[in-house]
Amino acid sequence: MQMTKKLKLNPEVCYMLGLCSQFRRERSSIMTLSVLDSVTERFASIAMKEFGIEPNAIMVDKGEKDTRIRFYHSQIGRLFDQALERREHVFKYRNAYSGSYIAGMFDAVGREDGEALYFYGMKKEDAMVLERLGFHTVNKGRKTYIANAAELAAFIKGFSLRLSEHRKRRE
């Protein structure tokens, strides 16, 4: 894959950005944690399809509670960092790009508590993105609740694996 100086965004790349945005990057790693196999499978699929990462270069560490998946690529890491530095400008409209990004965040650190949605340990920059999109946040310790949760759920439902799997189990 020919790398450029800017990250070529599409909804799948935005989803991966959301997944990775909540975790501190180590050197040139691109990584996320998840309890859902479907999320780690989607991460691997995006890495291979969008970035040309070979399957044997993707490392999966299954823990007791969650799975850590990562690959190393310094140039992609720099492009991710640049995109995340500009997240307030990149994700300022309610569209598939923002929906995918927020869905990735939710699949990484989001939870459903009855009808309430919250993000555990959300970064303040991402809370600002949500606020600017009209999703009001309320901090309670390390949990950031969404005041208009039904509206957020409707916005990300087509993109979030965690939300769709949770809703299927309730039906």
- Overall residue-averaged pLDDT value: 91
Task: Please tally the β strands and state the result.
Answer: 7
Helical/strand content category:
alpha+beta
Q: Give the proportion of residues in helices.
A: 40-55%
User: In what order do the strands lie side by side in the largest sheet?
Assistant: 4-5-7-6
Query: What is the H/E order?
Result: HEHEEHHHEEHEEHH
Proportion of strand residues: 15-25%
Sheet with most strands: 4 strands, antiparallel
Q: Label the overall shape.
A: globular
Termini separation comes to 42 Å
Stretches where pLDDT falls below 50 for ≥5 residues?
none
Radius of gyration: 15 Å
**SS summary, helix count:** 8
Describe what this molecule looks like in 3D.
- The chain has helices at residues 11-21, 37-51, 74-85, 87-90, 96-109, 124-132, 149-156, 161-170; strands spanning 29-34, 59-62, 67-72, 110-113, 116-120, 137-140, 143-146.
- The chain is α+β, with helices and mostly antiparallel strands and 171 residues long.
- The strands form 2 sheets. The chain has a 4-stranded antiparallel sheet. The chain has a 3-stranded antiparallel sheet with strand order 1-3-2.
- Strand 6 and strand 7 (143-146) form a beta hairpin.
